[in-house]
Hints:
4 copies of one chain form a homotetramer. By secondary structure, chain A is an alpha+beta fold. Chain A has 2 domains: 5-30 and 306-355 and 363-499, Rossmann fold (3-Layer(aba) Sandwich), CATH 3.40.50.2020; 46-284, Glutamine Phosphoribosylpyrophosphate, subunit 1, domain 1. The first copy, chain A, has 15 helices and 21 strands. Chain A has helices at residues 13-28, 58-68, 96-101, 156-165, 176-185, 191-199, 244-249, 289-294, 306-320, 336-346, 384-387, 403-414, 452-459, 469-476, 484-487; strands at residues 46-51, 76-83, 86-93, 113-119, 134-137, 143-153, 204-212, 216-220, 229-234, 237-241, 253-257, 262-265, 274-277, 300-301, 304-305, 327-330, 354-356, 380-382, 391-396, 419-424, 463-466. In chain A, helix 4 packs across helix 5, helix 5 (176-185) packs across helix 6 and helix 9 packs antiparallel against helix 14 (469-476). The radius of gyration of chain A is 24 Å and the shape is elongated. At the A-B interface, helix 2, helix 3, helix 7 and helix 10 of A face helix 2, helix 3, helix 7 and helix 10 of B.
Amino acid sequence: MNLEFQNFSSLPKYAFQNRYNEFEELKNQEPEAGAYPFDKMEEECGIFGLVSDENTDTFSLSQFGLFALQHRGQEACGITVGNDGKMYSIKDEGLVLDVFKTIENPETFMGNCVIGHTRYTTAGDKKKYNYQPFFAKNEYDQIILSIAHNGNLTNAKQLKKELEEEGVVFRATSDSEVILRLIQKNLDLGLRGAIKATMEKIEGAYSVVGVTRNKFFAFRDFNGIRPLVLGAIDEKTFVVASESCALDGVGAQYVRDILPGEIVYTSDNEEGLQSYLVKENCTNRICSFEYIYFARPDSMLEGINVHEVREKSGMKIWEQAPVEADVVIGVPDSGVPAAIGFAKASGIPFRPVLIKNRYIGRSFIIPSQEMREHYVNLKLNPIVSEIKDKRVVIIDDSIVRGTTSKRLVKILKKAGVKEIHFRSVSPPIIAPCFLGIDTPTKDDLISANMTKDELRDYLEVDSLEFLSVPNLQDILGSKNHCFGCFTEKYPVEKPVEEDLFQ
Amino acid sequence: MNLEFQNFSSLPKYAFQNRYNEFEELKNQEPEAGAYPFDKMEEECGIFGLVSDENTDTFSLSQFGLFALQHRGQEACGITVGNDGKMYSIKDEGLVLDVFKTIENPETFMGNCVIGHTRYTTAGDKKKYNYQPFFAKNEYDQIILSIAHNGNLTNAKQLKKELEEEGVVFRATSDSEVILRLIQKNLDLGLRGAIKATMEKIEGAYSVVGVTRNKFFAFRDFNGIRPLVLGAIDEKTFVVASESCALDGVGAQYVRDILPGEIVYTSDNEEGLQSYLVKENCTNRICSFEYIYFARPDSMLEGINVHEVREKSGMKIWEQAPVEADVVIGVPDSGVPAAIGFAKASGIPFRPVLIKNRYIGRSFIIPSQEMREHYVNLKLNPIVSEIKDKRVVIIDDSIVRGTTSKRLVKILKKAGVKEIHFRSVSPPIIAPCFLGIDTPTKDDLISANMTKDELRDYLEVDSLEFLSVPNLQDILGSKNHCFGCFTEKYPVEKPVEEDLFQ
Amino acid sequence: MNLEFQNFSSLPKYAFQNRYNEFEELKNQEPEAGAYPFDKMEEECGIFGLVSDENTDTFSLSQFGLFALQHRGQEACGITVGNDGKMYSIKDEGLVLDVFKTIENPETFMGNCVIGHTRYTTAGDKKKYNYQPFFAKNEYDQIILSIAHNGNLTNAKQLKKELEEEGVVFRATSDSEVILRLIQKNLDLGLRGAIKATMEKIEGAYSVVGVTRNKFFAFRDFNGIRPLVLGAIDEKTFVVASESCALDGVGAQYVRDILPGEIVYTSDNEEGLQSYLVKENCTNRICSFEYIYFARPDSMLEGINVHEVREKSGMKIWEQAPVEADVVIGVPDSGVPAAIGFAKASGIPFRPVLIKNRYIGRSFIIPSQEMREHYVNLKLNPIVSEIKDKRVVIIDDSIVRGTTSKRLVKILKKAGVKEIHFRSVSPPIIAPCFLGIDTPTKDDLISANMTKDELRDYLEVDSLEFLSVPNLQDILGSKNHCFGCFTEKYPVEKPVEEDLFQ
Amino acid sequence: MNLEFQNFSSLPKYAFQNRYNEFEELKNQEPEAGAYPFDKMEEECGIFGLVSDENTDTFSLSQFGLFALQHRGQEACGITVGNDGKMYSIKDEGLVLDVFKTIENPETFMGNCVIGHTRYTTAGDKKKYNYQPFFAKNEYDQIILSIAHNGNLTNAKQLKKELEEEGVVFRATSDSEVILRLIQKNLDLGLRGAIKATMEKIEGAYSVVGVTRNKFFAFRDFNGIRPLVLGAIDEKTFVVASESCALDGVGAQYVRDILPGEIVYTSDNEEGLQSYLVKENCTNRICSFEYIYFARPDSMLEGINVHEVREKSGMKIWEQAPVEADVVIGVPDSGVPAAIGFAKASGIPFRPVLIKNRYIGRSFIIPSQEMREHYVNLKLNPIVSEIKDKRVVIIDDSIVRGTTSKRLVKILKKAGVKEIHFRSVSPPIIAPCFLGIDTPTKDDLISANMTKDELRDYLEVDSLEFLSVPNLQDILGSKNHCFGCFTEKYPVEKPVEEDLFQ
């Protein structure tokens, strides 16, 4: 990595010192293992792009679009805008509204095309130079190309090695930069040609939006693993985003999902947004976990509403494993629609009695060991009177490590419930994802290590059931989607360990 | 060493300059009218106190307690701790977890008593020196007394004037400092005597927790307008907090609510927590709006669970004003329990189809005028398929300015609903609060300016109903509570305008 | 409003974090032994005070006065001003012009009296809370008394212990705070009475200026060890300062030196500046090293011009130890006047050929060991052509550790001089000072450990002479001055080691 | 100007905000006319370069070299180093020791070649992006070429326009960037070829040092207007610097001055430092003002010692204009050697009685108008006893605007001198410099607007004399040097006003 000191001089000295500390820190920075010890798979990234044929308020629209995708990543965000033939980029740690608030010259970010990214770390360590959008510059330090990527390449390491041998210099440690550098390297094939050449090289899951000085583009891998939808505000203003809720956020109409293997792009020669299929007739193998957990309930993915999938999963698991009980409760937020579906199908009343504290985000500082015990009820607190001495069905979207479920059971027991019937509306998670979801390794996946009965005993519940894979396929209306974490069969060849960019 | 550095010189120079700027800024600072233009009454403050007879982890416990009260104020927070005869205080802008995270010497804040405060501005302008806890110092710059206050005094201005004529120096502009200075001034009456003398002077709504170097105290006004509950972790460790959810947060058992006119305190002579009634047999006139909107659903206030009140209010308004409809929806979060109650009573299915973006908090920066129009669906987005062409009952906890309701109706219409039946599960708000709730003035209260029919037409809904005051009293089981914002009759004499500390 | 914010909360969060770090740092801070490894005794502190009977620009005048005293201390500076019955104080690390530049509200510092301090650490470690002026506050956090001190108490430790047993709280670790707290404690004796009581308690060297809310004062120890002069701008505006150059700096006329044992002060009852002798007929025993090294050449101390003393010392040492040579050079800056005197007396031409780099101040960062060798000529570089093959008399004001002299000889030899005749115009320094000068301990004083001949050989010079004590007394016209560092006989009893406040 | 935001993300948020403010500020920044209202021509820039055939401590050596050149510029400084095929650059506002102190990874700056720059603004406004060294990068954001320049081009504006028409992007507003971009553009001619092509294009005064990834170079304009000397530490380590005092600073032997029109450089094919004359037999026309005022007295320029020139000028003006007087004094620092020369020639004794405050650097903040009067004696204070009632010859190096001289006379009169005989040891300055010295315009040059007699009356002195041009030429041994400011005849054609890069 090259030190980039030329801008230091424009900083007040104290900022300068901070930056230096930063640098020193970065040099020694190791991936902070366990810094964010979630016992649940966490959100992946969200991407957003917009192109118009005239200058528009790309500042506000990208803010709205990324805000609507905030659930897909809260660590950092950024945008690159093309404004009158020049490109500007800004990115920083923080929530969308926080980062945009620091921009004091919004007019600089109002142009005719924009891409944005909201980030949760999946590949590449948590180093700050890995924030997106990535960009390439010319010899005069001007940005000429920028992309934002959601997904995970499976051959990034190999490609990076090849490129470096050709003299290409990398400035970050994320697989996404491989995509940037490949396009940059192939720009003499024309923009569409460069993207095509890139797609023919990279493997894995990728939904990408990008801009050059005067063009916009977006493309999706041949399996369509990560979502990417297309909308339009008017006949000249197009939007591409990870989920349709971002289209709602900018007042755009949903047009269709970008196809697996498709490039959409603007060009000098033709008006409007062009489409090009790098490969015809690809099968859509979108990640099923998007429906179960990641996507927002008001989003449509591949024409199917997420909320509806969740409600149906609750109905279906009642059919699959009925039980006598007094009350149904859901683990907020993603377990609630399923609980309502379960109640509807079973006639057992739904009670919204697990109260989630909304001010989570930062971790607690707990200096004394004994206090860690008190931690249990802080995020979820039950309304005791509604469940005391009752037979309770508790619905969660999934069971990953098992620790959250265990804690939940403890909370319910403390509240005096009579019976606990645990229902997961996804099948047992038995294998890690290497296509863009931050699943733990097999060792930490409890269903990869315990049978259902063992897990029931471990959780100390009266019954435990998982939605079956066929039932999930039935709800989604497809056996082609990626169910890799439940079946260990993936649409992409599983990479040798060392080729993963991690 | 005391944490309260008197020296500017101990700051790095740039901090110093910032501080100076700060000073300059403060000098010229006017209350930022409309800086946070909510169209809804917002949360008031939360207070928390804990005392033990030995050193405990007051750092963690106050963090947990304040975190559980975060919904009562997100602007700033702080704690004062008594540790081995010395007192330390820290307070800053930000959420509880953010502020505690900046504390690098947690051990300093581990002692035998602590008070904390989480703040939403009600009285006193938004100047930073108004953050709580307030404290008084001796001539050696050591803290000797500290309090945190929830509520609003109605004669603070007059009292401040009197005290200043006696030579007392005020350092902030909040009514809460009047309480501090009165106790400080009367300390030669003994602690209990000083509190009693203070309570006999101040008027209005006040729940207060406080500490001196070796004692803890809490007291509540003669009407018990703001809530204050007592709990115990063990027989020697007592907790006082605004709501019982904070007791859950620290693993304490609920004991009872502090009585109107009661002082609880520790003393040198007696073991444990003492109680003293400044006036006997006061009637409890707790704010009814706490149940409707402020308090967390899992809290118990005066023995009544908040969630239950809300669910009953939904059932009751169905009885009061039934309607034919296809679906019931609630405005998240506080309208949802009522919607579920309404569904239960009416048999019309409840659908959780208004999706709230959880990353609100900062305001949007919207440079271009036209973009402000796009703003509508960003906070609440409906699942269109669930309500399109349906007759919808929409339940909200209250209607204050009417702008939120208006926007909501617009969202529903855009989603294609057939009919809209709006139900507010509180009576019309016709008068401002001057006892601790940040209600707008009468001019901005839409129900003070429109009849129900006018409002129905303004909102463009098919029907509109408010829960009646008698029905609300029925649910709460009391006609004595404060219903001032619905009736303009208050438990405390309405102050002349200029005497309000604003 | 008082400038002394008690609230952390009024700082932007990052400042706050810095402050906290600061605090943590301070807690663990050890005196940084050898952080400023001078091989020369360094300047002590400078103090300045001004009082007028009406509001004047105390901001500018104290800036000018302290700027003229900058040579007495460059680590930090500060002022306390009385402005319309209120007191404001500011102090920070840095040079006078730097610190004053950061003050954004100069009008706050314009009043009728001011004291200031420019600091080089002598007693108390280098912790930042030891910056002066010191001040005491009342219970409302308002400053009521402030002092600035030059000198060193010899019984501070004992006094501090006594005061703490009486309940007095100290906030710093400097002997100067003992003076502050003693006056504060005795304020009920009236201001003059409190100062008198303080002077009767403290022992050692002290020149002090101070202010209360409406009064000004200054006093000097019974031996007058540290200088203190009185001047007047007009008949109502008086100035007290360490040296007369500060009077010149503010356009004041020199009146006289403050007497040993004298208090000058303003009072409510009498107009103008009052004088009071705590003890009559004290002998003036001012530090002789002030003339030799510390004071500015344009200053008058006790009626004698410093430059003149230095020039005479050069003439005298020629008489005392004549030598044949081709050229006389002086070590800048304090050796130059003596060199000119030597030239005048001897007829040997003076050449200004040692060029001093004026941008010294910060230390060099030298990562590689070998480079430390190159360090020699950076501060002093000779004009080789003027001294090559010449017999050179080199005059320095003193020889302390010997390392500077050794390095100087090396520079001269490298330049090709034929002979070196070294002359120190002070006697051999054989004993440390404990009265306000930062002399090294006896172990590091080279003349306490080597005879003149040994030192001559160590320095590798052709001859070496020191001005004799009688000759120095002759020049100063007094045998009463303090010559402790040359004779080990002090005007104050030498304290037991542990009673020194270090 | 292109916004360079990619690094923002690596800053803590507050730094980020500061940077933004910075950016905003820069956008609106106008040259701060009169921000530093010197009444004297100020120092120009200093440059330094070093090359070795192996890795050496270029960090320390460039620090030492620039420190020795600090008198040539105190606003900012920076270095670019070539370390193992990679290049790193750092630059910031501040003195050399301050800026180097902030570097926390000195090892990064230890390589085989380095260039450095210490800056006083001459051309280009005071914007921070104009700090040097300048550098060019490749498309991977890596530095590939860097230069530091002392002097002033006279056709920079025209060249910049031409280059921009060819598509070259400029990132700063200094004439020095034109040199960088021309070399960069011509790199396919080889390094020497590119420099030659550049020298054939640019006109004016330029001494330049530079580095590429593996080569070092330095060159000087065809008149040799700004100084540039060559030295050697050993047979493989060469140093190039503005003045020979920097050679002393790094322990290098003076070799010779770089010739007018010469390039020295390293190459892949040959060992050691190569020399190439772009034009043969150029006449050396070095700036005579370097000897009079700019250069350090211990420097040798073109084989002549600066101190010697100054002393001779004092002797010469005695010959030219003798006077009866009691005492000779010099204005520190550059007037002192001349005063000593005058004393030597005349027999009138020299007295070092003007005491200069060494802590100047920052400007005073003087809020009240009346206080500006007091300002007089702060920088220079006389020892009154030495000059009172005396006939004084006062020697200064030059008279530029006349305000300093006027103030000086005022100081002397206040001290009671009987007669003042003013001597300037440079001729009258009648024309501005456009070749690298920050002279005021003709309107502000007092000798361009007053005859000697008028000026004598204006200054209110008893006699006034300037060293004549022939006498100066005699001392310097050359009529070829640049005497433009005294004669208005320049070695370079005077540019049309608008072509100057200002």
